[in-house]
Amino acid sequence: MGRQSPYPEEFRKDAVALYRVAGGGRTYAAVAADVGVTGETLRSWVRQADELAGRGTRADQTGEGRDGELVRLREENKRLRKAEADRRLRWVFYLSAQSTMMYPGASRDFYLRKRAEGLRYVQAVLALARRRVDVLWAMFRDQRIYVPAPPSPDPAGR
């Protein structure tokens, strides 16, 4: 047998009950974080409780319970992949805005205007990144290529 658990039996039962009350709506890690243990520890406790209650292991489960969990896990995996892609895309647009605002042109003018409005550096770069996203989205929506506007005459006459 393994070593003695540092957690009292009652604590483990309560943690398992919290997970079961969630009805599959929360992950092991989410419930485990609430009670202060790791997700793997909680998963192990739930499996042990199932074996003691005669419910069998996951390998023994069939039907809707297993299929429902599989669907839930696939949806969660899809959501996490999308979140990672969103994070990378946001980073690409941030770097794009940062690099274009360093050179003369419409992007730098927009950045300087935002700074003059009182936005901090990061806020102004994020505003520029958002504008670049909006322009790209309009290009896709309207199925047009980007045509920069002609430079406006300098009011100072330089």
From TrEMBL:
What GO terms describe the biological role, i.e. biological process, of this protein? DNA transposition
Molecular function GO labels: DNA binding; transposase activity
- InterPro entries per UniProt: Homeodomain-like_sf (IPR009057), Transposase_8 (IPR002514)
Q: What Pfam family is a match, any one?
A: HTH_Tnp_1
The name of this protein is: Transposase
Q: Which organism is it from?
A: Streptomyces brasiliensis
